[in-house]
Specification:
2 copies of one chain form a homodimer. Chain A is built from 5 helices and no strands. Chain A is mainly α and 122 residues long. Chains A and B meet through helix 2 and helix 3 of A and helix 2 and helix 3 of B.
Chain lengths: 122, 122
């Protein structure tokens, strides 16, 4: 779960719970989320292939294992699709460069403001 | 630890504990053990490279992770260099085709008999 800027953490969570998501907004959010996840997985596949191709010593084999375990846990933690926290998840993805704000074009102004506030505050 | 044929398990263990290893025998056993471990690690590196090169989908990435974890645990369990159980470890490696009996040429007859008995009984 992404970290929240204080002091309004409680406010943001209860505000997010009360937000209504239109079908169009759900589609936009889901698409941006899925694209980011897809890009991150593709990048991890490329990196794993490169690391494997470079292996010469057994130690590097177990290093590849640790790399994959770490990436799996990071990706699991980062990509949580639940509407109650989705704006913060999207904001985190924007902040980390996984999603471009343009990809969220079409979300309601209040939602975009929460995302922008969280990006700026992080 | 390798499994032992009953009913003489206790006998074999106490017999092994009492065996004396000459410096020459230690060298022979260590060399055969190290060569087998080296071959197994090399084969695992080759297999990991091939699996990585074939990856197209994210699922195959985590499959590679599981493969590496499994191989690491198998290799850890299989290669235990302790003189108190070494003959059974070597016998297991012979049985699995990781060591050729010829590589153990030079060990005392009693040691070779314990190895051969264990290979035959398994």
């Amino acid at each position: 779960m992404p970290s929240l800027p204080t002091p309004s953490a409680q406010d943001v969570y209860s505000k997010m719970r009360d937000l209504h998501w239109s079908p169009k907004e759900k589609t936009i959010a889901r698409r941006a989320f899925d694209r980011a996840l897809h890009r991150e997985l593709e990048a991890t596949i490329r990196e794993a292939k490169q690391r494997a191709a470079r292996i010469k010593e057994p130690d590097e084999l177990w290093e590849l294992e640790r790399y994959l375990t770490r990436r799996r846990k990071e990706i699991d933690a980062k990509y949580e699709f639940k509407y109650s926290v989705l704006l913060l998840v999207l904001a985190d993805l924007v902040r980390k460069g996984c999603i471009n704000l343009d990809e969220l074009h079409g979300l309601g102004e209040e939602k975009l403001r929460i995302i922008r506030d969280h990006v700026a505050a992080a």
